[in-house]
Amino acid sequence: MTEMPTYKKSDFVSDQEVKWCPGCGDYAILAAAQLAMTKIGKKREDIVFVSGIGCSSRFPYYMNTFGMHTIHGRAPGFATGLKLHNPNLEIWVITGDGDGLSIGGNHLMHLIRRNLNVRVVLFNNEIYGLTKGQPSPASQVGLVTKSTPYGSVDMPFNIPSLVLGAGSTYFGRTIDTDPKHMQDMFVDAAQHKGTAFIEVFQNCVIFNDGVHDEYTNRASRDDHTVRLENGKPLIFGKDKNKGVKLNGTRPEVVTLGENGVGEKDLLVHEDNNAYLASMLAHMRGPSLPMPLGVFYRTNLPSYDAEVVKQVDAITAKKGKGSMQALLNSGETWEIK
After folding, report:
1. In whole angstroms, how large is the CA radius of gyration of the chain?
2. Could you report the per-residue pLDDT of 152-186, keeping only the tens digit for each?
3. Smallest Cα–Cα separation from 163: which of 272, 300, 278, 275?
4. CATH ID of 9-217, from 2.40.290.10, 3.40.50.970, 2.60.40.60, 3.40.50.300
5. In this model, does residue 325 exceed pLDDT 90?
6. Which pLDDT tens digit goes with each residue over 277-290?
7. Which of 136, 220, 240, 324 has its CA 20 to 30 A from that of 98?
8. With contact defined as beta carbons under 8 Å apart, do 197 and 163 qualify?
9. Does residue 2 have a pLDDT over 70?
10. Which of 102, 47, 103 is CA-nearest to residue 79?
11. Which class for 296: exposed (0-12), middle (13-18), buried (19 or more C-beta within 10 A)?
């Protein structure tokens, strides 16, 4: 058995000049991914980054791995073909809220429902950055842009609800201002057997600066986000004195120690609970913290493994096929 190489971050840094706007959150995501690749237990030559079109889609150039910069919204299709041809590959689909949820929405939805054994990282800055600031499918109602000068009237997707509704066997969320959390999320996703989907709150400093500031700013994020840890109560706040409990079927924020409220009264996270994951997907608003971490995971057969199993069974029964025989198996004619 070949011994696994020991990698450093520099082993995953390509020779290409990184070209994003100064201050863009993509730099932090790139650095976290390069560090995470040193910890996932995969050989560099077996790792592939696949992207579509958008600022995030430059990623394959900056990773010293194999990569494919494909066409708008079609990265899931390319990733599916690669994985079926070589199931040993560790494939990362890099997309954005525009590329993945608009023109690529159908492709992404079907990759998820099939449970292809790949990782999907969606950079969510709630804007089209590369095409200069139009509202995306994740933009909030009222967003003023050059193409919506009086405010967008489109309702945005609830991304975790969309992904979980499509049948994802893993959904997690992280932020571009917490490199350690991003690394941990990427490494954790790499161990999942099936489609592992990670949403990253990412800042576009040019066209939607500060869109996630409440949740990503180091000065405020502890009071406005809750870190999900399996088997642990939902506690948050700079002083760890806030918690989330159920009031009937609805979550509400309480202060520990007030009115006799203690940790035993709080909601405990179960990352294999689909009903809880659905509730967490809707936990967004002025009175509730934004969940970060793994919302949901479950084990189901992956698409690529089932296809390989099916092909092997048919080959064992009928023998190796012949393309020439297939082409001549039906009615044929000659055109003169």
Report:
1. 22
2. 999 999 999 999 999 999 999 999 999 999 999 99
3. 278
4. 3.40.50.970
5. no
6. 999 999 987 889 99
7. 220
8. yes
9. no
10. 47
11. buried
> Which secondary structure element, helix H or strand E, spans residue 180, and what is its range?
helix 179-190
Quote the tokens at residue 230: 């399996």
Task: Let me know: does 174 contact 187? Beta carbons within 8 Å.
Answer: no
Nearest 5°: phi and psi at 207?
A: -110, -10
Token pair of 97 as six digits: 């809220």
pLDDT of 285: 79
- Which tokens in the block code for residue 236? 């948050």
Between the alpha carbon of residue 127 and those of residues 22, 102, 147, 173, the distances in Å are 17, 12, 12, 18
Contact between residue 225 and residue 236 where contact means Cβ atoms under 8 Å apart: yes
What is the mean pLDDT of the segment spanning 219-228? Answer: 96
Token pair belonging to 117? 């054994």
SS3 at position 108:
helix
